[in-house]
Target: Transcriptional regulator, IclR family, C-terminal domain protein
Amino acid sequence: MSPKSDTIQSIINAGKIMDFINAKGQAGVREISKNLDIPKSTVFRILKSLEEIDYLLSTSDDEYAIGYKIHSLKPSLNKDTLLIKYSKDILKDFADLIGESINLAVNQKNKAYNIVYVDGEYYTLQANMPPESDLYCSSTGKIFLAYMDEASLKKYFNDELEKRTINTITRLDDFLKEKEEILKNDLSYDNEEYEYGLSCIATPIKKDGEVIAAMSISGPTTRLKFKNYDKLKEKLLEAKKKIEENIIY
Model:
């Protein structure tokens, strides 16, 4: 690989690392390396470089968080930053209560991008979860699709979508049937549509009637069934209400 290619790859890796830390709140070398499949030595070097220019800061737990320089690049706190601020403690308490992973995602360029991720009980697939996912095969993504205008929705499904599992919905007609239920119940599902063995339940987070984010529970299908889907949905909607009552822009 040429020096130029090395430089480009380093920039790409730095971006992935910052995205991961931003979604997690803070993370260490081992966790970043394992989740992003980047060598520990490379992760360590990038972390130290980003810390040196104040894009990251080192915490007392030998982990790293987003540094003040990133926030100072913005004239003021944006809505996503405020959403993280007002929801993070609620999401942490929720994850502790049910023992499953909780995601808070926003729609960025037709991708469900996790701005907060809280670990629950460990499961093998957890290590392979990316910080962003396609809308059509994720529970948070389906929330954004359900509230999309008709023209945008048709355009989205006109693209060729990968059928990741036998359950993945790739046709507009099939999604429209789900859309009715999503809008009726404020709940959407990923029934092993992104990955076999993984299921998710999501609900929209609204402010003044506008969907500003989506929150989901994710975990192994068998474990979620054992914990009772109806009870999990009830707790999810309770957490949704707390966040919506807590948001101040």
